[in-house]
Design goal:
InterPro entries: SGNH_hydro_sf. The chain has 285 residues and is of the alpha/beta class. The protein is built from 11 helices and 10 strands. It is globular, with a radius of gyration of 19 Å.
């Protein structure tokens, strides 16, 4: 009997489950990203009926890639018609203030600065709602700033914060932070577009290190049970490459942004089709 690949995989237990909103697999056709999904899963998309009530806050947490994504999302229906509010928390390694981008010191890495900032964002009143979403990435500045072991410890500490609990008035243990968390992976780099390839920073900004850090973070967030979006494959395969070493045109992420709109319209829930397709996607994620 001939069996499809999906049928064969369904006979085997999953090595682990991953809550992929989107695994990032697909192909570029005429400058448009086509995910390996049934058309009904993504392309038959329209805004909910006018009775849909906007709710919650979307906070995009990350570096300049997150800042650019926030700017694009802010002009779309996701922020204009679905969320009540969209905000951005901008950082490189530490939270970035007006003058901190020009500061440089020789102090040791202080992870508590990052952890306290994440706590501060999650603890805001507008984020203490189940309709709110934290789109989180701690990414490309780390391969050039800290060693891999330090990054592993940081991600473990971040996950600990995201999963913190408290006891409510009924004596039940509940999540301390109410917002839904989505981990967005790091993008691919176009190292050949750098202007100072011999600099110390560039020596550590390598494809191998970026993949290592990104793959570990994705795996850690998957195992912790958070929803994830992997944008590495679509950026790595984009025919035009990056605008520079790390940044891409907004249109590269258009399909992902549509996915986020559909996710929000379905009450911050993943869009599960058949059990077989979902299992297939998990096992190969």
């Amino acid at each position: 009997m001939n069996m499809t690949l999906a049928d064969k995989i369904r006979q085997q237990p999953c090595p682990y489950a991953c809550n992929h909103l989107w695994d990032g697999f697909g192909r570029w056709t005429n400058d448009t990203w086509r995910p390996y999904l049934d058309a009904t899963e993504l392309y038959n998309w329209s805004l909910p009926a006018s009775k849909y009530r906007r709710s919650g806050t979307l906070c995009v947490y990350g570096d300049s890639l997150g800042l650019r994504l926030f700017g694009s999302l802010n002009s779309r229906d996701l922020c204009k018609k679905l969320f009540l509010n969209c905000t951005n928390s901008y950082n490189w390694i530490y939270p970035l203030t007006d003058d901190s981008s020009i500061l440089n010191d020789d102090l040791d890495f202080m992870p508590e600065k990052i952890l306290e900032d994440i706590r501060s964002v999650l603890g805001r009143p507008d984020m203490q709602l189940q309709d709110s979403v934290l789109l989180l990435n701690i990414g490309l500045h780390y391969p050039v700033s800290v060693n891999f072991t330090t990054y592993q410890r940081l991600m473990a500490d971040v996950i600990h914060i995201l999963k913190e609990t408290e006891v409510n008035s009924q004596g039940k243990k509940i999540p301390k932070y109410k917002a839904k968390v989505i981990w967005k992976s790091t993008t691919a780099i176009s190292k050949h577009k750098g202007t100072a390839p011999q600099s110390t920073e560039a020596r550590f900004m390598t494809t191998q290190r970026v993949i290592l850090f990104s793959a570990f973070a994705m795996s850690a967030m998957c195992q912790a049970g958070f929803d994830v979006i992997d944008v590495y494959p679509l950026t790595d395969s984009y025919p035009g490459g990056g605008l520079d070493v790390v940044h891409y045109a907004d249109k590269v992420f258009d399909t992902m942004e549509t996915l986020l709109e559909k996710y929000k319209a379905h009450n911050n829930q993943r869009l599960v089709t058949s059990e077989g397709k979902e299992r297939f996607r998990r096992c190969t994620g």
